[in-house]
Design the sequence.
């Protein structure tokens, strides 16, 4: 194959080097500043880094010159000459652009060493953030860097594309040998990472995260290679099934005319991308639902027994009976009323809940959700001040305030401490709004006041912050406050009465059934029993509707992919008209012809669908295990929740195959109508 | 003469072209006996190929009947017709019409595969050997010469042991030397296996060799000559 000569050793090295270079740009660009943090304080290290980088550029430039020189000696019109020249030029340009940017950077660093090194070197090198230059009179630098970065990105893309197209200049035999080597290395790597690296990362541990990412990446590439290797044998196996599958598989395997080949590749890709998108979005929405459910179930009881308009009087027997019911894990009484909480700086409305600190942990996750303080402070508020410094994990300012409080409390007479204020636990957002820390004093205003000369006077009472919780639900963290049940009963003038009983069950999905059972048990005493699904019906209803809407919207994308399958098959039928004629002349029935083309369409659909689902699985798996960070200020979640549901994978797969099946029917019918006489007459 | 293999009775064929009807066959009557070798000759547009297609059930006549052993095939449904074609008729076309994605062996086996049976492997190999292509089993049509392709097509036509093999200008696309060897193959097969051939040809040499020659002109049969030639002289130029 003298035609493949343009790819000499130099071009190969340039391709490899260029790709490594581009990969380096991507990796460094994406790496957090942390990587370079070490070099900030170390000028020498940083200088070495810059010099190393510049050396890379120089060698890239020299290599591209060598390739250009070689390509220039090739005769015009030789296969691969154009792309080799283009590769040489773009690699040269890339080197030029990058080295210019590094040069300007070095200069900028020299101009204002102190300022620049205050930023991060990664941001300097790649101009990702412009903060570092904010103080400098180098306002043009960010613009220049934006331009340079864009150019760099463009030339990187060019290098990747050209390197890949140069790959096809290599003789087939040599390419096959390369793949064998590649696969062997990959197999070894796969075995290594599977045995050595963990699949999921430990929280906050960068090394284990990196290892898990490497493991998933290697496994994915290995899987792709295995599948690619299996396609041939699988199709051969498929051919053995029967005549129709044999013809269908051969049609797909056969070298097609350029347009049809592109069209069938594109339709497989279209099916793959759309089904991948569908499953990813559904997984994320499922993740939101699972997240919400977890939070709701953590904060709320699974079942609440209460009365619609009044409080419960004689509740002890009810509590005991509820606890004895099979399937119930725990039950706790509560008293609830809306109040106003005011601190020194601010005030806010809240739902005040009197809870039984002894049993509340049986039902909700309040104790685990406390980020500051302890549940026991509700009953022993005198311990708050003694301990607040130790338990407060917040910053220096909080510690200072606590210090002051502590000192102030120490100065108080002992009897004041004994008769201390009762404790109050508030949510994180409420604490933030009222600027509260553990140990602070707040006043709670209850609507159930005393009758005074001018009418109803709201009752107020001071409380001390005993704890701050974070539930993960904004509504909850903003609106809820907890106090001890007995304190609440006294404060709210509901001695001996409660609002209701909260129940936790063993199996959350059984809650509705158990609720019905409890309802029949408590009889017709005016009590109502509601389970969590009933209480959050609207929320879950809205989520389900949203998910359905998403499924339909993205399902339309799959449908459009189905159109491309339709187009490809119509083209294929046109191209295979003569062959259909031959097959019919030899005695293939119309139904047989239909089946052949339906099988072809299904193969395209199955290939696309499998690719899409596989990619979707890898994406959602990675998102689930490595976490995609989200801004908690905006979304109130710190990472994107993802929930993989096998049923959804099955449904998306089935939907994809169905759409492709529908897309095949008409072209297949058209093929079956080809009359052999017409197909064979004109040649 | 015993019951003919094929009996074409008063067949006409009219094509509609841009609103005008064009009568291509104007009443054909033809009987072909089992084991006969018949050629149809005539000028272009005489309706030779159309008649061949009708006899091969690739198309239906406008009027008239086509009987195979007394059975009127024009009344069969499309899948029955496909089944009938598969079992009873072999085709050899001017442009071999092999399937390009399949090897020579697979092409020959194709009628058997359509039936859904795989037991034709040995027979296909034997047929390829008979047409002199035992070395070319795994070659694709694109890798074979014109004569070789036509031999594969012939082997394919013979796979199901059909009652009748129809050939439409089988050597119209080949040079004279290759044509001659394909011609002698036809005679050879007829002599050894008693296969009935109906061949449309423009080749004067080939037509002259045939024991029965039907001339067509303007949609009608012009003449039907039988030549009493000794059996052993068949296949040799007179």
Sequence:
């Amino acid at each position: 194959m003298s035609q493949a000569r343009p790819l000499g050793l130099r071009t190969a090295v340039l391709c490899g080097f260029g790709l490594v270079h581009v990969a380096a740009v991507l990796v460094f660009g994406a790496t957090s500043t942390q990587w370079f943090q070490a070099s900030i304080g170390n000028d020498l290290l940083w200088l070495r880094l810059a010099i190393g980088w510049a050396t890379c550029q120089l060698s890239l430039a020299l290599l591209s010159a060598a390739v250009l020189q070689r390509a220039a000696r090739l005769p015009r019109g030789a296969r691969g000459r154009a792309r080799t020249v283009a590769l040489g030029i773009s690699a040269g340009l890339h080197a030029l652009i990058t080295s210019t940017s590094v040069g300007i950077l070095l200069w900028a660093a020299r101009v204002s060493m102190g300022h620049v090194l205050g930023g991060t070197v990664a941001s300097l090198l790649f101009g990702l953030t412009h903060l570092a230059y904010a103080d400098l009179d180098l306002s043009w630098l960010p613009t220049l860097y934006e331009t340079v970065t864009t150019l760099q990105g463009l030339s990187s893309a060019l290098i990747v594309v050209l390197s890949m197209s140069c790959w096809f200049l290599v003789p087939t035999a040599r390419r096959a040998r390369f793949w064998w080597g590649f696969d062997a290395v990959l197999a070894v790597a796969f075995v290594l990472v599977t045995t050595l690296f963990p699949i999921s990362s430990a929280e906050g541990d960068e090394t284990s995260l990196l290892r898990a990412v490497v493991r998933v990446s290697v496994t994915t590439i290995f899987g792709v290679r295995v599948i690619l290797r299996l396609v041939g044998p699988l199709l051969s196996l498929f051919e053995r099934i029967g005549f129709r599958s044999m013809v269908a598989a051969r049609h797909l395997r056969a070298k097609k005319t350029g347009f049809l080949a592109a069209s069938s590749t594109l339709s497989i890709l279209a099916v793959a991308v759309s089904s991948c998108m569908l499953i990813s979005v559904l997984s994320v929405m499922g993740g939101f639902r699972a997240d919400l459910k977890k939070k709701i179930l953590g904060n709320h009881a699974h079942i609440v027994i209460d009365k619609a308009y009044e409080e419960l009087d004689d509740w002890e027997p009810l509590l005991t009976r509820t606890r004895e019911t099979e399937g119930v894990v725990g039950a706790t009484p509560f008293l609830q009323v809306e109040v106003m909480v005011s601190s020194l700086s601010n005030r806010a409305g809240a739902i005040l809940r009197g809870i039984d600190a002894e049993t509340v942990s049986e039902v909700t996750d309040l104790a685990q959700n406390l980020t500051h303080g302890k549940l026991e402070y509700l009953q022993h508020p005198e311990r708050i001040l003694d301990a607040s410094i130790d338990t407060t994990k917040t910053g220096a300012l909080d510690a200072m305030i606590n210090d002051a409080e502590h000192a102030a409390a120490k100065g108080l007479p002992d009897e004041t401490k004994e008769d201390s204020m009762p404790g109050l636990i508030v949510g994180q957002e409420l604490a933030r709004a009222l600027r509260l820390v553990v140990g602070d004093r707040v006043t709670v205003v209850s609507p159930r006041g005393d009758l005074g000369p001018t009418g109803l006077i709201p009752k107020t009472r001071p409380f001390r912050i005993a704890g701050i919780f974070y539930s993960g639900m904004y509504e909850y963290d903003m609106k809820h406050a907890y106090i001890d049940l007995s304190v609440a009963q006294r404060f709210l003038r509901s001695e001996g009465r409660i609002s209701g009983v909260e129940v936790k069950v063993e199996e959350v999905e059984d809650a509705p059934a158990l609720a019905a059972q409890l309802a029949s048990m408590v009889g017709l005493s005016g009590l109502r029993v509601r389970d969590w699904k009933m209480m959050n019906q609207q929320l879950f209803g809205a989520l389900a509707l949203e998910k359905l809407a998403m499924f339909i919207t993205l399902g339309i994308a799959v449908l459009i992919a189905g159109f491309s399958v339709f187009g490809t098959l119509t083209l294929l039928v046109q191209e295979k008209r003569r062959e259909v004629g031959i097959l019919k002349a030899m005695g293939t029935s119309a139904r047989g012809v239909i089946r052949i083309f339906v099988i072809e369409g299904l193969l395209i659909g199955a290939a696309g669908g499998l690719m899409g689902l596989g990619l979707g699985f890898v994406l959602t798996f990675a998102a689930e295990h490595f976490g995609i960070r989200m801004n908690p200020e905006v979304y109130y979640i710190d990472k994107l929740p993802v929930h993989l549901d096998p049923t959804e994978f099955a449904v998306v797969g089935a939907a994809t195959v169905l759409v492709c099946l529908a897309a095949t029917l008409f072209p297949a019918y058209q093929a079956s109508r080809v009359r052999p006489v017409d197909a064979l007459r004109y040649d | 003469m015993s019951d003919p293999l094929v009996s074409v009775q008063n067949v006409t064929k009219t094509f509609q072209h841009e609103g005008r009807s064009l009568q291509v066959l104007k009443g054909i009557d033809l009987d072909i006996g089992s084991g006969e070798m018949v050629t149809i000759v005539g000028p272009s547009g005489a309706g030779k190929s159309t008649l061949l297609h009708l006899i091969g059930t690739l198309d239906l006549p406008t009027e008239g009947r086509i009987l195979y052993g007394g059975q009127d095939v024009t009344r069969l449904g499309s899948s029955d017709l496909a089944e009938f074609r598969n079992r009873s008729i072999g085709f050899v076309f001017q442009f071999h019409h092999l399937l390009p994605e399949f090897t020579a062996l697979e092409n020959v086996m194709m009628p058997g595969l359509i039936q859904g049976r795989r037991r034709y492997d040995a027979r296909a190999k034997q047929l390829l050997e008979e047409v002199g292509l035992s070395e070319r089993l795994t070659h694709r049509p694109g890798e074979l010469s014109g004569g070789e392709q036509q031999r594969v097509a012939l082997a394919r036509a013979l796979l199901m042991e059909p009652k009748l093999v129809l050939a439409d200008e089988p050597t119209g696309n080949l040079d004279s030397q290759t044509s001659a060897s394909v011609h002698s193959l036809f005679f050879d097969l007829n002599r050894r296996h008693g296969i009935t051939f109906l061949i449309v040809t423009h080749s004067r040499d080939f037509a002259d060799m045939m024991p029965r020659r039907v001339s067509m002109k303007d949609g009608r049969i012009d003449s039907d000559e039988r030549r009493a030639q000794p059996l052993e002289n068949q296949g040799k130029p007179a």
User: Anything to note?
Assistant: DSSP finds 28 helices and ten strands in chain A. Residues 258-299 of chain A form the longest helix (42 residues).
